[in-house]
Structures are given as C-alpha cells and as structure tokens.
Design goal:
The structure holds 2 protein chains of 2 kinds.
Chain A: H1 4-53, E1 82-87, E2 91-95, E3 111-117, E4 120-128, E5 134-141, H2 142-190, H3 210-258, H4 262-292, E6 301-304, H5 305-314, H6 317-322, E7 326-331, E8 335-338, H7 340-358, E9 363-370, E10 378-384, H8 415-425, E11 429-433, E12 442-447
Parallel strand pairs in A: 7-9
Antiparallel strand pairs in A: 1-2, 1-5, 3-4, 4-5, 6-8, 9-10, 10-12, 11-12
Chain B: E1 2-6, H1 10-22, E2 26-30, H2 33-41, E3 47-51, E4 53-54, E5 57-58, H3 59-68, E6 75-80, H4 84-92, E7 97-101, H5 105-119, E8 127-129, E9 132-135, E10 140-143, E11 146-148, H6 152-163, E12 169-170, H7 171-178, E13 185-187, H8 189-201, E14 206-209, E15 213-216
Parallel strand pairs in B: 1-2, 1-3, 3-6, 6-7
Antiparallel strand pairs in B: 4-5, 8-9, 9-10, 10-11, 12-15, 14-15
Helix pairs in contact in B: 2-3, 6-7, 6-8
The chains are: A alpha+beta, B alpha/beta.
C-alpha cells in the first residue's frame, strides 16, 4: 500500500507498539527479580525467627504431639510456606503441617537452593544454629509466586492492549486531520477536466505541500500559455491555409475553362485533384489539432441530429454527383446533446470515408434512429456498398494514420480516428459491421439519450 | 446577372471574379463589412456572395443588416467547412444557401443560379394563415402572437407552403425550396420536417395530399 496515510498510521503504530513492548519486557524482568528477592528475604527472615525462637534444648527433646486448632478455625495450607526443624542432622523435631516428610534441603547446608519436592519446583532455604546441631529449613513452591506474577502480567497486558487501541485511534484521527488539505487537493485534481489548466487552490495547505502545489500551478500556467499559443496558431493556420487553397482551386478551374488542348485540360484536372486533396488533408489535420487542444470543451447543447445531417451531407452532393454516387438519408427527429462543430466533423468524416470506399456509382445510406431500447439511445448509421473492410482490419481502422492495406483510395488515416475521438467525447459507442445488401461497410455511432428537457 | 462579392482575400476574390465573368456575370467586389453595407444601400444585386470571416466583423452583420431592412436579395455565404455552427447561424439569420471553402467553381455557379431562381417571385411581406404568421424579412414565425423557434429547414418548409397557400406543394418542390440541391440525395427529411411543424404549430395546419404533396389552407381550384 503506497498511501501516505497508511504508511504514517502503520509506521507510527508499529514503532510505538515495539517500543512499548520492549519497555514492558524490561519492566517485567525487573519486577520479577524484585519479587524473587523479596520472597527470598522473607524466607530467610522466617527461618531465622524460627531458629531464634526455639528452645536450646529442642535438640534433645523428643518429637512432641502437636496442638490442634479450635473447631471454628480451619487450616488450608494455602500459604504453602513449609518449615522443618532438624536436630543432629537426622530427625525432625518440628514441622509445619503439610510439609514433606523428607528434608527440604537434604545436604543441610546453609543457604538457598532450587529443588524438586513432591513433583513441584520449590525454593528452599536452610540455616543452622551456631553449634551446628539444629538445622531450620524453609521452603515454598515456586508455582505460587509464578501464578501471582502471571496474574499481574495478564492485567497489565490487557491495559496495554486497550491503551494501544486508543492510541492507534488517536493516531488515525491526527493523521487524517493533517492530511485533510492534501486529500482536498487530490479531490480537486480528480474532479478536473483532463485539460483544465486552471490553478489548483493552494489556500490552507501545509508548508510541506504548498511548494509542490505552487510549482505545479506555475507549470500549469506555462502549459496554458503554450496551449493558448498553439490554439491561436491553429486558428491562424486554418484561415491562412484555407483561403489560398480556395483561390488556387478557383484559379485552376478558371484556367481549365479557357484551356484549349486536351493535354492542358488533363494536367489542370490533375492540379484540381491535387489541390482538393491537400485541402482535405489540411482540414483533417486542423480538426485533429483542434480536438486535441480541446477547443470545443464548451458549447454543448441539445441538437437535432437529423437537421445537422442534412446540412453536412449536402456538402457531398456535388462530389457524389460527379462520381454518379447515390446518397440516401433516412431520419427520425432525434435529439442528442453535443457540440455542433464536433458532430459536424464526425458526420463529415463518416461520409467522406463511406463515399471513398463506395467508389464510382456506389450507394451510401445514412440513417438516424431513436433506438427502442431501454436507454433510448440515438443511432447514427452510415453504410456503403463498396468492397468493405476485412473483419481482421476492423478493429484498427480507428487508429490514427492507419490505412486499410491494398486499398486503392488514398485516405490520410486521420478521418476515422477523429470519429472515434468525437464519439468518445460525446459518450457514444461505435460498432462496425457489414454495409448495404450484405456487402460493403457500415459504422454505427450510438449516442446516449439526451436528459429530459427542462421546461 | 449582377453579383456582389464580399471577400477580404484578394487572390480568392480575383479567381472567383474571373470565374463568374467567364459565366458572363458581372461582379462588384468589396473587402469588408462596412463597404458591403454601404454598397448594398443603393445597389440592387441578383445575389450576394458573402464570406463570413471578414476583417472588422463577421459577414453575419451584413446579412442581419440586409434582413432588418427587408432586403430580400438572396445571400450565399462562403464559410469554412469545419465551422458548422457559423454556417447554421448564417442560415438562421436568413442566408439562402452556403458554400464551403475550398469550393469548385461549378458548384458555386449552380448554387448561385439556384438561389437567384428561388428568390424570383418571392414575396417579402408577412404571411398569415389562421393564427400563424411568418415574417420572411426577420425570419420570425409566431403562433397566436407567441414566437415559435424553428430549425432552418423547418422554417423553409413552412415558408414554401405558406407562399403557396391553398396549392399543393410537391415533395420535390419542397426539397428544392429547402435545399436547392441537384437531387443526388434521396431522403425522407421533408416528411420529418412536416411532422415537426405539425408538432410545433398544430396537427391540422398542414394537410397531406397523398401521392402529391402537402398543402396549407383551403384548396383552390
């Protein structure tokens, strides 16, 4: 997870948990040692007190019967502190109730030892009197101390977990709060149009991020200037190119009319064709540049698609007439939301493409229908009865500069890429298939239904 | 025929003028909006060939001035192919037809001839039928005093029918009035416009004469 928030929260939490764990372990060792010392001291004290409180003659005295408790008191032996008094190193003269029969410390040497008594780990202590005749031994099972330590450990562990949970909650809140301005910037960027070059709001940003956003904004500013410049250039170039080409075409046709020899006429006709081709190419390049520069970001509105079709298709009337081609138009009153100029480019390129593929005497059918499906989409279809496009090539024809191999007609490979781009900008889908009468090529552009009209 | 050419590019203007003169038309040439407005005041032309991209204002201003003065001289606008919105604005403002740059001279002749032919016998006063009025000068249609917005083709269909009230107008005649094309395009668009006009102006406004065409008003014999 490459998220700053995740890294901060996880990193801080792990670090704190690790430090806390270490501290806890150190504390635990310390406390255990202290408690062990305390226990040992206690046992030593008890042994000494017993020794000192014994009658000097105890070594000679025989083993006596012990007293019994009164009926209301009971003895459970919970304390588990056992003691034995040994005389002359071979018999017990005094013994706590419940203490083992054998010596707790069989070597009878003074000092502490860890022993196994009655299948339990014991801590034992022995001390002899100054004459060495009487030996007092005190012992306690270790399990007693261990259980107590376990209880304390468990309790503090629970506290620790609860506190860590609280702490991680606090860390989460603090990290979230600190990252809020950054998240706001992120949201602002995400909601932007792909080519929106307005500066990102830098107000309220923390000092660490502000320079980043500010330099980004400077970059956006420069980019915006560049793009504005490019747009101006495109607009100028469009005008500058179109008019001389028109003049050239008109002048050539004037010359063609007054040409006398067939030779002159042929070469002038070729000139006309060349000028038309360059005009068409420059137009497409300009369309492409303009679409890329997102010139048409604004100006979408409700459009009668059928009305637009009529206007654009008429541009092809003369050229189609010269090639004895038939254009048929079948429409319904369909409304879509879009940009007039973009849709004009789309329809023009579809038509241009279909008429080129249909060839001499071909037929191009254009239709626009409101589909009777649940989405109420609008389908624009342009189909021809030309040789068609092989199925294997159909996926690639919308790529920029792609030309269907072996096709005699010279296309620039731009037209359909413009169609695809404009369809995408309008949320439309494109489907390709067969054209008219089981042959040729057909393209369907399906536009989403317009939102209901506001009265 | 006498044509006014409004075009700022000298090279293109020369070529167009030469081409039109080959066709034995006479051409007056002006370069900008103001000159065009001025020359239109006291000259009568058969048609105006108007470039939309002019220095010192759009050619649309010339068109609007003409139409507000009830000057019904047919106007053919010259526009860039990619600027469809300009073209539609031009038609909405009352242009008779358009031609896109770069154009073939033959196409220009054909379109000029068509707009001149269609403009002949055109009446410019306000046309009225029942609660519908059509003002060709301002290109305004009202129903019961309320303005109705029509697309340029719908308007032309209505105008063609209103100009011949009581007479059947055939589909071919309507297509000629609406597009003035050479018949290469086969379409059902006239039926669509009739449908839209009925929707916007009343179902019983336009009668269908099956097998012939459409009619507005009581039949005349």
């Amino acid at each position: 997870m490459n998220s700053l928030r995740f890294r901060l929260i996880a990193g801080l939490f792990l670090a704190i948990a690790a430090f806390w764990g270490t501290w806890y372990a150190v504390q635990l060792t310390q406390v255990t040692r202290e408690q062990t010392d305390l226990r040992d001291k206690g046992m030593q004290e008890v042994a000494k007190q017993i020794l000192l409180s014994l009658n000097r003659s105890i070594a000679e005295s025989p083993v006596q019967a012990t007293l019994a408790l009164p009926a209301y008191a009971s003895f459970t032996g919970e304390e588990k502190l056992s003691f034995q008094v040994w005389a002359e190193g071979h018999h017990t003269v005094l013994r706590s109730p419940g203490s083992p029969m054998e010596a707790l410390k069989p070597d009878f040497l003074d000092g502490f030892a860890d022993r196994r008594v009655r299948d339990e780990d014991w801590r034992v202590f022995a001390i002899s009197d100054s004459t060495g005749r009487v030996n007092v031994q005190v012992g306690k099972p270790k399990s007693y101390l261990l259980a107590e330590q376990q209880r304390k450990r468990d309790a503090s562990l629970i506290y620790m977990i609860v506190l860590l949970a609280l702490l991680s909650g606090v860390i989460w809140i603090v990290v979230r709060w600190s990252l809020k301005p950054i998240v706001a910037v992120q949201a602002a960027i995400r909601e932007r149009n792909a080519l929106d070059l307005k500066p990102i709001p830098a107000g309220g940003l923390p000092d660490e991020v502000r320079p980043l956003v500010e330099s980004f904004n400077r970059l956006l500013g420069r980019l915006d200037e560049t793009i504005q410049g490019e747009r101006r250039f495109i607009a100028d170039a469009a005008h500058e190119l179109r008019t001389p080409l028109a003049a050239l075409l008109a002048q050539t046709q004037v010359a063609l009319r007054s040409a006398v020899t067939d030779e002159e006429k042929t070469s002038l006709r070729r000139l006309v064709a060349g000028v038309e081709r360059s005009a068409r190419l420059s137009e497409q390049l300009l369309d492409m540049a303009r679409l890329d520069a997102d010139k048409y970001a604004n100006g979408h509105g409700r459009i009668d698609l059928y009305d637009l079709l009529v206007v654009v298709i008429r541009d092809f009337e003369t050229a189609a007439n010269q090639k004895r081609q038939l254009i048929s138009l079948d429409t319904e009153p369909c409304v879509i939301v879009g940009h007039v100029d973009e849709l004009g480019i789309l329809i023009r390129n579809l038509m241009d493409n279909a008429l080129r593929y249909a060839g001499e005497g071909g037929h191009v059918a254009v239709s626009c229908k409101c589909l009777q499906d649940s989405k109420g989409r609008v389908c624009l279809r342009v189909a021809d009865d030309g040789p068609g496009v092989p199925e294997s090539e159909r996926g690639r024809i919308f790529d920029r500069f792609y030309r269907v191999p072996g096709n005699g007609e010279r296309g620039s490979g731009i037209g359909l890429s413009l169609v695809a781009r404009i369809a995408q900008l309008h949320g439309a889908t494109i489907e390709v298939g067969e054209g008219l009468d089981g042959r040729g090529f057909g393209i369907d552009v399906r536009f989403p239904a317009p939102p209901p009209e506001v009265a | 025929m006498h044509i006014l050419l409004v075009e700022d590019d000298a090279m293109l203007a020369d070529a167009v003028r030469a081409g039109l003169q080959q066709n034995e038309w006479t051409v007056d040439w002006v370069k900008d909006v103001d000159a065009a407005k001025l020359v239109l005041i006291d000259h009568q032309y058969a048609a105006v060939l108007l470039d939309l991209g002019l220095p010192g204002g759009s050619g649309l201003a010339v068109l609007e001035t003409m139409r507000t003065r009830y000057d019904a001289t047919p106007v053919l606008i010259v526009t860039a192919r990619d600027n469809l919105s300009d073209r539609i604005r031009g038609l909405d403002a009352g242009a008779d037809d358009y031609i896109v740059k770069p154009f073939q001279l033959d196409e220009l002749y054909a379109r000029l001839r068509a707009v001149v032919r269609r403009s002949q016998g055109r009446v410019s006063p306000v046309l009225t039928y029942r609660d519908i009025t059509v003002d060709p000068g301002r290109r305004v249609v009202t129903r019961d005093g309320e303005r109705v917005l029509l697309g340029v083709h719908e308007y032309r269909t209505l105008l063609a029918l209103m100009e011949r009230q009581g007479w059947i107008v055939t589909r071919d005649q309507l297509e000629d009035s609406v597009y003035g094309g050479d018949g290469t395009i086969e379409s059902n668009t006239i039926a669509v416009y009739i449908h839209q006009l009925r929707r916007k102006l009343g179902e019983d406004l336009i009668a269908t004469e099956h097998g012939y065409g459409y009619r507005i008003g009581e039949p005349r014999r």
